[in-house]
Amino acid sequence: MRVRPRLHLLEIWRGVATTSYNDNKWTWGGRFESNSVSDAQQLLCLMFPATEISSFGLGNPDRTEEATLEALANLGGAQKIPLLIVQVLHEYLDRYTADDGTPLFSGGSHFLSRDPDSPPTQAQLELDVVESFAASVTLMLATISFARSLQRSVKREEHLSSLRQLEERAGRRLTAAMVGLLRSFTINTFEETSRMGQALLRSVNQAGLPERRVVHDLRHELRDVIAGLRDEIQIGSGQSKGGDLDSPNLLFECGWSWGVIRDAERVPFFDLSQQRDGVASDEPYLYFTMVALDAIADLFTERTRRASLLDEDQQRLARALQIRWDLTQEYWAVLADFGPAQWPLEDIPWRATDEIESDYLSVLVAGVAMRNLVEVRADDLDLSRMGTLLSELANRGRITRRPTEDDQALQKLHDPGFQLPLVVSGEAIGPHLIWPVQDYAAVLLKRSARLATMLKDTDLYSDVLTLMNSLWDHLDLRRMKDGNTKTLWDQPSLAYSTLTRTYDQPSWQMTVRVVESLVLAAGLVANEPLRSDTLYNLTRDMISEAEHLLDQEFLIGADNAGPSMRRTIQSVNANLQRAKTILSKRPASAHALVSSVLLELDTLAAAREDSTWAR
Amino acid sequence: MLVFATSDKGGTGRTVTSSNIVYRRALQGSDVCYLDFDFGAPTAGAIFGIHTVQRGTKDGGLHRYIQGAIDEPQRIDVWAESERTSLCGRPSGAGELVLLPGDEGGSEFVVDDESVDRCVDLLVQLNDSYDIVLMDLSAGRSFATELALRVTARDELRSIPTRWLVFHRWTRQHVIAAHGLALGVGGILDLGKGFGHDHDELQSAIRFVRTVVVNPSSEQLAGLRAAQITWLRQMDRDLNQLAGNLGIGRLVTLGSVPLDPVLQWREQLITDSDTMLREIANPATVESFEALAKGLTDDWITI
Ligand SMILES: Nc1ncnc2c1ncn2[C@@H]1O[C@H](COP(=O)(O)OP(=O)(O)OP(=O)(O)O)[C@@H](O)[C@H]1O
Ligand SMILES: [Mg+2]
């Protein structure tokens, strides 16, 4: 694999440290001016690897690795780095907490206006956005575990109390973020004959079956989801819709909208007066759904559980989120591979019910569907189709294929990227808003890395690695080249000569996606290599032949035939033992060892044969 | 500032390292003096190249002064009296470098109140004349250690900043031993409390120095086989973990001195002519001494 997770992560850390800390001050903001989403992403570039990969840990200064310290040297030494991070995390919490204590998850400068002449209004800039809830879930979990771990190394009372405060504040923001996610979940129902219904049917009906039948089959496949949505959504948004779902002609979608749904009910377990009203339309966005699912998954990882990062209220909220997580994943997975013909997902680009179509949407659906493949029923065929699909998306995104002259893909996916129109329900409060995302290439890498972690078949695995290599080569080209931001993303014009815009600030959105991919890739490398069964069987047979030949040598007393012979036999024996020990985990290495053993033994046998010809 | 150099085990490199630290500190411009309190085996004379006091002095050293046999211990101006040409003459910009040798044939003795008084007098007086007064104590939980703890607990010395350096080699046994000496039962901290020291204050004045450290990724080891380097790296990681767990990890480590070919063969000060002119010693060794010399008076923050 050409992706070297450790090396690249260290490079990124160096870039983050030099870009973000100057004249003893933390510099917020990048391509977008400081806002709750970008700032969280900026911090996650540090905190995510620090919590996910033990050798990148920063919570125990005695154990911080030298290489890590070197990368972060601009932030200070082993003692100062964690203290500085504590201070910066406090600063983040200060910035995004209102005077009355209300946690703020506003999109701020990340919101763009569709009309360049009329910028978003102040009221719009202050709207909470799902991506901020999601980023805060991950960041606050990382903060809590970091603060706890650091408390064990710290002695000074002032530091201890600052850490306790940080833990407390992060816990509160975490709760608020979870509440936000519960208030932006949505079930969107529509008639089969409506425009949305028709759009959905066009996507799923790849076999061209009669509509009635498709509706019936789809509802049948979705029966568990329907039951779940009807019976189990009891707090937050999306409750009222559940009952409608029983009507046989009704189709629906579920997932997350872009912000708090208009009139969403407030959720217990958190100060009701601090739950701000939303205006988001009651329909799911694939992008925000994916972002929310990824964040919610962090709530029930092994680590979160083992370290008991959640308090009792948070565990309740997490269970409520998990229900939505399961149902949403199941829903999109059913849609993705529905029907007897080609998967709807394979019909690229994916077309959403609002009739927007994009390769980016295909990547998102693939991401959700893939999660489900792990949970339930992954067989190699499904996984291989998924691999092919990702390669196809890399081609279409002009990552592994050269762009044509005036290629639309470049603008639509990379720069300025995919532009999500944020629909407001009810009265408009300003110009139409847009949420820009330009992380197509990095998201593809992330999905490929995730797919690789699921594979057992060595051929498939090496195909996916090849894809990851090409994606990485492309991403590597797009790193910024100058000054402090060197090693960070994103400079798309370096990969595409027809793009002329150049940036001098890093995109934290793109950089954090790359970081997430690298963390996944690091997990991949840390695992034992995939075992080839063919190689295993072959090597096992070779070992038994070698053992037999060695026994023959013992039988004729080779081990008593002087020092040189004894050394040879001893080394042959040692290599053979080692081959047996590692056979089951690393058959290829065992194969190499036993090959050398067989060669050595054959030299002895050949010598003996030669001595017999004159008899 | 008073600095006490200790180690649990003998032969850790305490004397050689601390001599080189004061030497570097003098070159950096401070007035320093070195007290050979290792009553069992005073060897500092040899390291500074003072032939006459190679194994301690015959003219009344620290040992006899503490016991009340003489009024003034001998002081030797190293710049003036060293036989090593590269040490002769104080370089411009350098501070004083003075050695107070131990007595030849001296030995450990029991600490009584009078010896504590005399020691206090001496240290107060030296502290007035020098920026740094470093005492090389005998290894282990010795009488010298006890004397140092009793002396520093006295009111006269309360206002003088005092620091402890615990030297240990970078091996499992040495790490465990150093932890024991500083933080274990009957160790410095423990004994110190008995003599009236404040626990936290004393603890914050202790730092560890790793000696004869083999750095697995150094140029020097280019000759080792890949498998050996791999093993060393794993050992290094394990040791760091052990040290961290024992509470003597990076946070309380002042520095580490790499294994040096010259020191391996001879106890001496490493001068710039050793590294630059003759290139027999490693520049990295000197850098580590310089860093230690600087770090000695830095703020030792406890986080
Ligand atoms: N960095 C180093 N590299 C190689 N050898 C070293 C290094 N530091 C010290 N040594 C050697 O280790 C040996 C012990 O050093 P030294 O006499 O300074 O130890 P000590 O702790 O003072 O011993 P004692 O307890 O006997 O007083 C000496 O031979 C010295 O030259
Ligand atoms: Mg000594």
UniProtKB/TrEMBL annotation, chain B:
GO BP annotation list: negative regulation of cell division
Protein keywords: ATP-binding, DNA-binding, Nucleotide-binding
SUPFAM superfamilies given in the database record: P-loop containing nucleoside triphosphate hydrolases (SSF52540)
Molecular functions (GO terms): ATP binding; ATP hydrolysis activity; DNA binding
GO cellular component terms given for this protein: cytoplasmic side of plasma membrane; cytosol
PANTHER family reported in the protein's UniProt record: SEPTUM SITE-DETERMINING PROTEIN MIND HOMOLOG, CHLOROPLASTIC, SEPTUM SITE-DETERMINING PROTEIN MIND HOMOLOG, CHLOROPLASTIC-RELATED
Name used for this protein in its record: DNA-binding protein
Organism: Rhizocola hellebori
